[in-house]
Amino acid sequence: MEIIPEGTPDAFVAACPSREILARLAEKWTFLIVIALQHGPMRFGALRRKVEGVSQKMLTQTLRNLEKDGLVTRQIYDEMPLRVEYELTALGRELVPLNQAIKDWAERNMRQILEVRSSGA
Fold first, then answer.
1. Calpha distance 86→67 (Å, rounded)
2. Taking the CB of residue 88, how many other CB atoms lie within 10 A of it?
3. Would you call the peptide bond into 17 cis, given omega within 30 degrees of 0 as the criterion?
4. Where do the domains of the chain lie, and which CATH numbers do they carry?
5. Distance (Å, rounded) from C-alpha 30 to C-alpha 117?
6. 46 HSE (CA, 13 A, CB side)
7. Do β-strands 83-88 and 42-43 pair in parallel, antiparallel, or remain unpaired?
8. What is the distance between the alpha carbons of residues 73 and 88, in angstroms, rounded to a whole number?
9. Which helix (H) or strand (E) holds 83?
10. Using one digit for the tens of pLDDT, what is the confidence trace for 6-59?
11. DSSP symbol at 79
12. Contact at 8 Å (CB) between 85 and 75?
């Protein structure tokens, strides 16, 4: 059993486990997969098509990490061929509005940011 540290969580403190959690949540593939799963369960191939650019290896690794952290469940159906679906847990669904807001902000402000970048400012 993992020991929960005493005191108030503070991500600014190097030893605080919340820092590791923030690092995981800020990963590009984690962020996008959470949003991709917001409407319900998806199969691996459907997720890979939805999240363009993610390799099979990175998708597998990210899904395993999300499952290990309790944000995603993996359901195996005993069919031929074998069917596996991934779905957000209640904890994972709490992230959706946060991630969606950041995604929306990035898409809404993309042009302005790219213009500033290209101007060398």
1. 9
2. 24
3. no
4. 17-119 (1.10.10.10)
5. 26
6. 12
7. antiparallel
8. 6
9. strand 83-88
10. 778 888 988 889 999 999 999 999 999 999 999 999 999 999 999 999 999 999
11. -
12. yes
d(C-alpha 33, C-alpha 49), whole Å: 11
Give the per-residue pLDDT at 79.
85
Radius of gyration of the chain (CA): 17
Q: How confident is the model at residue 82 (pLDDT cuts 50, 70, 90)?
A: confident
Q: Which of 93, 98, 21, 31 minimizes the C-alpha distance to 58? A: 31
- Alpha helices, DSSP H, located in 15-79: 17-25, 28-36, 44-50, 56-68
Is residue 26 a contact partner of residue 18, using CB atoms and an 8 Å limit?
no
42 vs 73: CA distance, rounded Å: 11
User: CA–CA separation, 41 vs 75, rounded Å?
Assistant: 9
What's the CA gap between 87 and 43, in Å, rounded?
9
